[in-house]
Design goal:
Layout (H helix, E strand, L loop, with lengths): L2 E7 L6 H5 L1 H9 L2 E7 L12 E2 L9 E2 L1 H12 L5 E12 L2 H8 L3 E5 L8 H8 L4 E5 L9 H12 L39 E2 L2 E2 L9 H19 L12 H9 L20
Parallel strand pairs: 1-2, 1-6, 5-6, 5-7
Antiparallel strand pairs: 3-4, 8-9
Helix pairs in contact: 3-5, 4-6, 7-8
The structure holds (6-phenylpyridin-3-yl)methanamine.
């Protein structure tokens, strides 16, 4: 039994191409994942098929109506067990690799795409009395609606499904930056290379051609530490079991070992 995903949106066409191609499209063709994309306006009751109204308390924009959303979600859920309702919103809990893995292990997900200023707060509250409801954010920026966030989440979930090609099929795929490789856990990946060995005068790092697997692993960890320090200094404090070489690399990147939870002292690779 694969994963069932329902998506409720006022723009069903938005999803047709992306869910039909690549890894997700193939998983759907195999039946490892099945999709239902539903037009919210199907549950609108007035002649104009309106799904929004003015906000109580004033303020800009419009708010999505609870009656339309309630009827839609009730019909789509159908009283069956096991579904989780996911509502993308910039005020949600962060979507992480860990959450993607937990969603990939569920039988059924229903994504509710808001537009305008969002969905009336009573909808999440009402549904929470019946099933798990997650308000989830894919990052600290505001979109025009939840649709793009749903595509991001579906792709992250889909590649973790058992039977999906390219899935390392290890249950330890729970950490970004070093999926499956415990030595890289909590780190961003460094650069990768392919043929030719020399391109426009630029050589592939010698160590990668050496056949010395221990040296290659050490080099990759050095590069991962440097990139993490430069791009995600917030991740450095959470690193555990740093060896002497790790501390040396981090010190060169502006993270002196004696200030384990400190801030970078600065350097050319820092974001500006
Ligand atoms: C915007 C409803 N975390 C990204 C994100 C997710 C959802 C929305 N914005 C940003 C959004 C307008 C209406 C949802």
């Amino acid at each position: 039994m694969g994963l069932r995903i329902d998506i409720v949106t006022i723009f069903p066409e938005y999803f047709h191409s992306p869910l039909g191609v690549s890894l997700i499209g193939k998983a759907a063709a195999r039946g490892d994942i099945t999709f239902g994309v539903h037009d919210l306006r199907r549950w609108a009751t007035d002649v104009h098929h309106s799904v929004d109204d003015v906000p109580f308390g004033g303020g800009p924009g419009m708010v999505m109506r609870p009656d339309v959303w309630g009827d839609a979600l009730e019909e789509i859920l159908g009283g069956g067990p096991g579904a989780t309702l996911v509502i993308p919103t910039p005020s949600g809990v962060p979507f992480t690799q860990d959450l993607a893995a937990r969603y990939a292990a569920q039988p059924r997900l229903v994504f509710a795409c808001g537009r305008y200023e969002g969905i009336d707060g009573r909808v999440a509250e009402e549904m929470r009395a019946r099933i798990p409801v997650d308000e989830v954010s894919i990052g600290d920026y505001v979109l025009a609606g939840g649709e793009a966030a749903v595509l991001v989440m579906v792709e992250a979930i889909g590649r973790l499904l058992p039977g999906v090609l390219g899935n390392a099929s290890s249950a330890g795929d729970d950490s970004f930056g070093g999926e499956g490789d415990p030595a890289m856990r909590g780190l961003l990946e460094g650069p990768v290379y392919t043929r030719p060995r020399a391109w426009r005068g630029r050589e592939v790092p010698e160590v990668l051609l050496s056949g010395n697997h221990a040296a290659i692993a050490r080099w990759r960890r050095d590069m991962a530490l440097r990139r993490t320090a430069a791009h995600r200094p917030d991740l450095i404090a959470a690193l555990r079991d740093l060896d002497h070489r790790d501390r040396q690399v981090l010190a060169e990147a502006g993270f002196p070992a004696e200030r384990a939870h400190g801030f970078p002292v600065g350097g050319e690779d820092m974001a500006h």
